Amino acid sequence: MNAPFEHVSVILVRPQHSGNIGAVARSIANHGLGPLIMVDPPAFDPDRARWMAPHASHIIDKALFTANLSQAVADLHLVIGATARNRKWHAAPLTLPELCEKCQSPTKIGLVFGPEDSGLSNDDLKHCHALITLPTHEHRSLNLSQAVNVFGAHLMATVPLEEEEKEQRPAISPSLEHKIQEQLVELALQALRLSDYTKSRSEVYLHNQLLRFIDGANLNHSDIVTLKGMCNKVYHTLRVLKQNPSLPKKSQNP
Questions:
Q1: Are the CB atoms for 35 and 63 separated by under 8 Å?
Q2: Do 126 and 207 contact (CB within 8 A), yes or no?
Q3: What is residue 173's DSSP assignment?
Q4: pLDDT band at 105 (very low <50, low <70, confident <90, very high)
Q5: Do residues 88 and 122 make contact, with C-beta atoms less than 8 angstroms apart?
Q6: Closest by alpha carbon to 184, among 148, 159, 209, 151?
Q7: For residues 154 and 100, is the Cβ–Cβ distance under 8 A?
Q8: Which end of the chain has fewer CB atoms within 10 angstroms, the N or the C?
Q9: Residue 72 exposure: Cα atoms within 13 Å on the Cβ side
Q10: In terms of Cα–Cα distance, which of 179, 37, 205, 29 is closest to 111?
């Protein structure tokens, strides 16, 4: 039987405790989530993780490892960062019902969790299309595996108890993979750097703004190719002008 949310990856950024990783793997198995992806874990002990993951060792065995978050989300379509505190960030905040609704489609989604002691950094957040914070009473921070459990339980609550073969879902517009979105963002940033637009602005925030604009515009691959061509042309034109400021201007007719 296929996992109901196998299209939802759980991404742990620099997780510090192998026991927590094992508990997350157990939650993934319990709630039918997708692959476990670990970004640069500083001290991963697979035996300790498996000890904390009864009946879920296969999740540990199949876990994917990447050097950075950009690699981890490259093939995803929607990236959602989990944060324990309110952030002064432009990424749209999601509620739990909104998250559950988004996860009903087969779009490849990544739920991103930061290190246990500090959470996601601003550099991590620039890769996220949206952020989500679990409601709490007093102490805002949850244990890593507890947070994954809460998200998983809410997702499982949307699955019928007696699930027969579902009717074919209506076709949806294919989403653009994150790595394709990133290519356009980087080209746009190159042009903005040459135009000096980034001198008084944070490139991390600009990166995230551009990423969200692309996601919200419902672009297809043809649109992306066209925009990449435009950005590339602007970049090279500005580069030539910067390198040759004394180029003669085109003569005008009297």
A1: yes
A2: yes
A3: P
A4: confident
A5: no
A6: 209
A7: yes
A8: C
A9: 32
A10: 37
Tell which residue, 86, 127, 151, 113, has the closest CA to residue 16.
113
Q: Which residue has the higher pLDDT, 90 or 143?
A: 143
Closest residue by Cα to residue 193 from 230, 242, 125:
242
User: Which amino acid is residue 97, in one-letter code?
Assistant: P
Q: What is the pLDDT of residue 170?
A: 44
Which of helix, strand or coil describes residue 111?
A: strand
* Pairwise CA distance, residues 179 & 73, whole Å: 8
The Cα 69–Cα 125 span in angstroms is 10
Task: State yes or no: pLDDT of 90 exceeds 80.
Answer: no
What is the token pair recorded at 70?
A: 């950009």
Amino acid at 10: V
- In whole angstroms, how far apart are CA 34 and each of 24, 30, 117, 193? 12, 11, 25, 38
* pLDDT the model gives residue 219: 84
* Residue 168 identity: Q
Q: Is 87 helix (H, G, I), strand (E, B) or coil?
A: coil
DSSP, res 167 = P
CB 207 within 8 A of CB 185: yes
Say which residue, 176 or 36, is predicted with more confidence: 36
Sign for the CA dihedral angle at 230, 232, 236, 241 comes to positive
